[in-house]
Amino acid sequence: MQLTDSIGRNINYLRLSVTDRCNMRCFYCMPKEGIVKRGHEAVLTYEELQLIAETAVELGIEKIRITGGEPLVRVGLTAFLEKLAVIPGLRHLALTTNGLKLAEMAAGLYRAGVQRLNVSLDSLKPQTFSEITRGGDLGRVLAGLDAAEQAGFPPPKINCVIMRGVNDEEILDFAEMSRSRGNSIRFIEYMPAVKEEGWQRYCISGEEILQRIEAIHSLEPVDKGPFAGPSRDFRIPGARGSIGIITAVSGHFCSECNRIRVTSTGQAKGCLFSDEKTDLLPWLRPPDRQGLAAALRHIVSGKPERHEISQDGYSHTNFTMSQVGG
Length: 326
Ligand code: SAM
Ligand code: SF4
Fold this sequence. Notes:
The protein is built from nine helices and twelve strands. By secondary structure, the protein is α/β, with parallel strands linked by helices. It has a single domain, classed as TIM Barrel, CATH 3.20.20.70. A twelve-stranded mixed β-sheet has the order 7-8-9-6-5-4-3-2-1-10-11-12, covered by helices on one side.
């Protein structure tokens, strides 16, 4: 079955958030004090998340990415993933993590059936990394990357948010990582989600990031795989890893958007940047598969044609990035 929205986009990708809690406090994602903690009952149980996943796959979703907050902090995650991995019709199960707990969890994630890991990593300098994440330990994340490969994963994809004056001097170091370590690097434009003071100075376009790499390396375009998101991908000739640019803010990302999102409290969204959301709880408590399927179809058919953000900022009010899962 294919899930198609009102303008003909094939929607085959669900980003499923399992928690809004996190063991880091990246300044562009979360306020310093963290987010208001929700009661236990507000967060979907694994059974409820499983029902959403199964229903979405029956409708035509082929890829699920587990995200958060930080998914690896939720107790019982590996057992949940084992059940998710065997949903008939699910072709790709991936997970995005900040990597802090990866060293101890990578082998279990691999055994559970996760096929691909994305690790968020914004600096290769311990001090800068600690400043961006408000105390994160770079060494643990790098150990996590090694552990993932030892467990059997392909080199994790690296998500790197570039911010002018913070880590833009490291663009070429990350590009080099695609050659030296074989990780595929995806540079993500900084989005003013928290609107921290003076956020405008951080903005740097994907185009400028690309130009800075092209000033040093010739880049060849790379064919995207069947589940690729809306990034533009290149490769330094001979490198194992690719270099992708996600121009969510400045670019024309929307025409290729293939995803929907569900938060850990059961709010479904057709667009990261829209305030529109559908509460799935009425079809989860008690469980109602048909109602849930109708609600998910409604999200897809109401998916906005494009987002309204620009580098002047955007005005959504009802979530933080850690609640929606990026
Ligand atoms: N905690 C996990 C992690 O950091 O990978 C998963 C959740 S995190 C919200 C998912 C992605 O969103 C991360 O790659 C993060 O860098 C990105 N993100 C969060 N806030 C962002 C912002 N303001 N601009 C651009 N990307 C952002
Ligand atoms: Fe946590 Fe990921 Fe947000 Fe950083 S980007 S605060 S690691 S949820």
